[in-house]
Amino acid sequence: MSLLSSRIDPLAFLTDELNALRAKGTYFKLRVLEDEQAAVCTFDGRKVINLASNNYLGLTTHPKLREAALAATRDYGVGSGAVRTIAGTMKLHMELEEKIARFKNVEACVVFQSGFTANAGTVSALLGKEDFIISDELNHASIIDGCRLSRAKILVFRHKDVAHAEEQLASVKDLPGKKLLISDGVFSMDGDIGPLPGLCAAAEKYGAIMMVDDAHSSGVLGHQGRGTIDHCGMHGRVDIQVGTLSKAIGALGGYVCGTRDFIEFLYHRARPFLFSTSHPPSVAASCIAAFDVLESEPQWMEQLWANTHFFKKELGLLGFDIGGKNTPASETPITPIIIGDGKLTMEFSRELFKEGVLGTGIAFPTVPEGKARIRTIVTATHTQSELQQALETLSRVGKKMGIV
Ligand SMILES: *Cc1c(COP(=O)(O)O)cnc(C)c1O
Fold this sequence. Notes:
Layout: H1 3-6, H2 13-24, E1 40-43, E2 46-50, H3 63-76, H4 91-104, E3 108-112, H5 115-126, E4 132-136, H6 141-150, E5 153-157, H7 162-171, E6 179-184, H8 196-206, E7 209-213, H9 228-231, E8 240-244, E9 254-258, H10 260-269, H11 271-275, H12 281-296, H13 299-317, E10 334-340, H14 342-354, E11 357-358, E12 361-362, E13 372-377, H15 384-400
Parallel strand pairs: 2-11, 4-5, 4-6, 6-7, 7-8
Antiparallel strand pairs: 1-2, 3-9, 8-9, 10-13, 12-13
The chain binds pyridoxal-5'-phosphate (PLP).
């Protein structure tokens, strides 16, 4: 017998973990996309109406972005070759950051590899053991990880509860240490908007740093897609704005906006910036083209909202729980169909897929236990007839399964 085969597998416990998921009905296989990320596309050999992507404006396949990526690849190659601080800062990276800063009406911007690293890298660089973070209970996982990495004390407030946030701020106001108040602009699982005016006022009252993660609202809310800060009229009152280049912008990346000093501090201290290679030229070029499109082609955002209003209204009329009772009501193109039970949600998702609709089931731990859902996101590129067909399928399968 070889040494290898007699060795006890130290990872054997994972089989039990996976079997537990199977027993619960929340085990999943990855669905594989065989063509472009589009409103109608092919997963696992089946053509489906796609209600699962974050491709709000359809920019993943926009000709101007595609051209920009190809040209950048021809001119500058496929990789940056180093982290930003060593040799991996290309002119395209600087151009993108200047463009975003102008768009967001702030002094400066730094781009990270993803929205996840932007949040985690920023919070953990800014705060330390002596500091306090006051955070909405439904903030994104990347914020939570950043908070944990910082080792600051984390005070969670009830979802969108400004009075509770103030209470938390008040409880530490006489203690030394910096205070950071942080909220998603749009919450990714419920599609509701953070109470920015109240939070900004609370941060100002207690001298806290105000930070907003606008991943789901850049390209979706505000003038030409400037996000929730613009939507809520909070320019100049949010110290740190985070956004992603992976959702409405259609490519990949995350960015942080703020004062010049703050951005330069991140150059020196944000660990993903210092220790992970920068974007390939094609990604930076695609993103630059995307911001041009936001400014020159308002039709995509208009269509996104027309589709959103139509789909939300019809979905509600079909009798689905789309939030607003025991969960927040969505105000954006994200519309959850709340099922509750994780297993039933996953079965619903599988049945929908067989009938030609991709609506991904989301269960614990991504959402709380008992709040499992199909999260739907419409995009600007869904046609009216595609949305109608998706609604018809949701209704038919929902009735068959006793969900409506
Ligand atoms: C998606 C998301 C992120 C992460 O962005 P990526 O670019 O995909 O890493 C961060 N915050 C929120 C609120 C998100 O929804």
